[in-house]
Amino acid sequence: MNKDLLKGLSEEQIEKIKACKDSAELLSLAKAEGIELSDEQLAAISGGGLICSTPTFTCPECGSHNIDAAHMNSSLHKYWDLDCKDCGKHWRE
Question: Can you list the domains of the chain with their CATH numbers?
């Protein structure tokens, strides 16, 4: 892993990171340690793409799967902001 991505972490945290077997384990560790990851760090963990693929959503109004989905992720809130392209229904999950 790029040493610049490890700046600000303790030696103990770096050793724990090195022991992680996959990105899911690494993300769990970051959460448990209270580490806020930058966009660059998240991209490095996920291989440069999204951390997870977008799940399939079903509109609660019309049953469509034609959904615009945006993952909202802040230190206080994590949710999907969703808009049905067919009926216009807006909701969050």
Answer: 3-46 (no CATH), 54-93 (2.20.25)
